[in-house]
Amino acid sequence: MGAQDPWGTLPVERTVLAVARTVPCTARLLDVAELFRGDERVAVDFTVNAGSRFGAGIAGMLRDAGVERLVPWEHAAASGSGFDLALVANPKGELHRLGAPMLFMPHGAGHNRLVGTLPGSLSVASGLARSQLEHRGRTLPARLALSHTEQVARLRASYPEAAERAVVVGDPSYDRMLASAERREHYRRALGATQGRRLVVVTSTWHHDSLLGRHGRRLLGALLAQLPHDEYRVALIAHPNVWYRYSPAQLRRWLAPELAAGLRLVPPLEGWRATLVAADVVVGDHGSVSYYAAALGRPVLLATFGDALIAPDSPLAEFGRATPRLDPGGDLRAQLAAAERDGGSLAAADLLIQHPGGSGGRMRRLMYGMLRLSPPRTAAPEPPPLPVPAPHAEEPERFAVEADVTADGVRVRRFATLDPGVGDAERFEVVAAELLHSATAASPDIAVRSHTSETESPAAWIVRTLRRFPGCGLAAASLGGPRALLRLRDGRAVEVELSGTDLFVAAAAVYAWAVDGRPLRALAAGVPVRVGTRETVIRGTPPR
User: Fold this and answer.
1) Which of 162, 197, 284, 382 could make an SS bond with 290 (beta carbons 3.0 to 4.6 A apart)?
2) What per-residue confidence (pLDDT) applies to 2?
3) Which residue, among 144, 168, 126, has the nearest Cα to 316 in the 3D structure?
4) CA-based Rg of the chain, rounded to a whole angstrom?
C-alpha cells in the first residue's frame, strides 16, 4: 500500500492483518487495532477465518466499527499477500496458511477453557495447547501476548518452545473498563438504574453448563418476581455464542416474557463491558465476564460453574472455588443484599491480569517490534471510552403490588410479573389498559389507562372497564398532564395529582388506602407515598 499502491493516498509502510473468527475474537482485535491510532504508516485490514459454528455476527460487528472492506481469506492466505503482521485472537482454523508473522492473544480473560473440536475435548486450556500452536512441527505464533505470567508457566509445561515466544502485556479489554470507570453514572442511566435502584447483572457464557444452560429462564423470572421494580433493575449479558448459535431474533423471542417484565437485554456485540462498570452485583458462571466483574471489584455470586470445561490448574478454576454460590431456590433478594454488604475485592484481578492499565504501551511496543518499525514518540493512545449501552428494554405493563398503609402514609412495592392473575391475599394486580384488549383477559384488581383518548373520555373508559371486569376494584385513567381520575367499584371517585410518580403507583396507593378503610376525603390534605427510595405526596379532590 502507500507508495506501492497505485490507488493509495497516505504513505502506508506496513499492513497488519487482523484475523476474525468469532464475535469475542473480533472485539479483542478491534481493541488492539486502536493502538495504531494516529499513525498513518500502519494500516489494519480484516479477514474472516471462517469455520466457527459461531461466526455469525462478525460482518455486522465490523460494519458497525466502520470496517466496510474485508480481505478474502483465500487472498490473505496466499503467498506474497503482502501483510507484515497477523493478529490472531482465536487459535483455530487454517492459520498455518498465513505467511505473515503471527501474534497470538486471548480473546477473553486469559486461557482457561478446555474447548477444542468439542467443549471439554482438550486436556490443556485452549490457546496454550500444542495441538493448536503447532502445525507439522512448525510453531505458528511468532509471539504470544498473554495477560499474566501464570499462563507462561502453563504454556511452558505444555509446549516449552512456544513459551520462549510469550510476552506478558496485560489485558486490553480490562483496561478499557478501567478507563471508563468515571462514566459509570452514564451507563447506569442507560440501563435504568436511577433513583437509587440497584443494578443486578446476570451473565451467562455458552454451553449446557452455563447459567442459561443450567437454569434456562427460571432464574431470570425468579429475580424479576422477587426484586421490587422500583428498587432494582435486572440486566442479562449472554455470550455471543448464545446469540449466534440461534439468532438474535430467536433469543429475544424466547425471552419475550422476561423482557415484558422489565429485563434489560444487553446486545451481543457491544455493551457488556459498560454494563459491568455500571453493575452493583453480578450473578454469573464460569465465563470470563464473571471474572472481569470480580476484577472490577463487583460482588459476584455464581449460579453454576462448569468445572469440567475449565482447566483445573487455571486461575479461573481457582476463582470458581473461591467465589460464593447463589442458591436459585432461596431468597434471592437476601442473598444479593448479603453479597453487596460483603463487598467485592479487587484481589481477583491478580489471578489473571497483570499490568492493569498498562497493556496498551506493552502491546504497542510488541507489535511495532514485530513490524520492525519505530513506535510513535507519543505515548500509547488511551483506551477509547466504552460506548453507552443500548439494551433491549421494555417498561412493564403488569405488576403484582404489595402496599402497607400506616400512620405515616402508604408504602408501595411493585413486582413485575410474567403471568396474569397474580393477585392474592398479600398482593394485588395492576394492569395497563393495553393488556386488557383480549376477550379472555382476566379481571385485574386495578386497571390503568395512562394515555388520553380522542374517542373515549376517561370517565367513559372507567365505567366500561368496571362493567366488563366484575373483579376489578379500581379503574384509573389519565386526564392529561399531571392529573388522573380514579374510581372504586363502590362508586367513590377522586381526582389525583401525579406529582413525582406515575399512575400505576398512584392507583395502587389509593386502592390500598381505600381497602384499609381510610376515607378518600383524607387525600385532600395529601398522603405520603413511598416507593423505592423516593417519597412523594398524593393529593386527591372530588371529581370536577
Assistant:
1) 284
2) 40
3) 126
4) 28
Beta strands in 1-51, from DSSP E residues, in sequence order: 14-20, 42-48
H-run or E-run covering 134? strand 134-135
Shortest CA distance to 507 belongs to which of 494, 519, 490?
494
Residue 426's pLDDT is 80
Give how far the C-alpha of residue 314 lies from the chain's centroid of Cα atoms, to the nearest Å: 25
C-alpha cell at 441: 383477559
Question: Looking at the domain 2-174+355-371, which fold is it?
Answer: Rossmann fold (3.40.50)
Phi (first) and psi of residue 360, to 5 degrees: -60, -50
Q: Are strands 14-20 and 42-48 parallel, antiparallel or unpaired?
A: parallel
Identical fold for domains 2-174+355-371 and 181-352, yes or no, is yes
Nearest one of 462, 470, 455 to 503, comparing CA atoms? 462
**Number of continuous H segments (helices) and E segments (strands) in the chain:** 21, 23
SS3 state at 517: coil
Q: Which string of b and e fits 402-428 if b means at least 16 CB within 10 Å? A: ebebeeebbbbbbbbbbebebbeeebb
> What is the C-alpha to C-alpha distance for residues 211 and 189, in angstroms, rounded to an integer?
26
CB 36 within 8 A of CB 10: no
Nearest to 394 by CA among 416, 419, 421, 427: 416
Give the bridge partners for 14, in sequence order.
42
Q: Cα 532 to chain center, whole Å?
A: 23
Task: Give the right CATH number for 181-352 from 3.40.50.720, 3.40.50.11540, 3.40.50.2000, 3.10.310.10.
Answer: 3.40.50.2000
**95 C-beta neighbours (distance < 10 Å), count:** 21
Largest Cα–Cα separation, the chain: 89
Identify any residues that bridge with 140 across adjacent strands, giving them in sequence order. Answer: none
Q: Are 145 and 331 in contact (CB under 8 A)?
A: no
Name the DSSP class of 310: B
The residues, any chain, with a CB within 8 Å of residue 90's CB and separated by 6 or more, are: 19, 21, 22, 25, 49, 52, 107
- Cβ(398)–Cβ(435) below 8 Å: yes
Which pTM value belongs to this model? 0.93
Residue carrying C-alpha cell 440461534: 246
Element (DSSP H or E) covering residue 213: helix 211-215
Query: If the chain, 544 residues long, is cut into consecutive pieces of 10 residues, what is the mean pLDDT of each piece?
Result: 68 95 94 95 95 85 93 87 93 92 92 71 81 93 96 94 96 96 98 97 95 96 96 98 94 96 95 98 96 95 93 90 95 97 82 92 97 93 94 94 94 87 74 86 92 94 95 95 94 90 94 94 93 92 86
Contact 388, 493 (CB under 8 A): no
Is 51 within 8 Å of 93 (Cβ atoms)?
A: yes
CB atoms inside a 10 Å sphere around CB 529? 25
The rounded distance, in Å, linking the Cα atoms of 320 and 72 is 40
Which residues face 537 on adjacent strands? 528
CA distance 178 to 181: 5
Q: Per-domain residue ranges for the chain?
A: 2-174+355-371, 181-352, 398-541
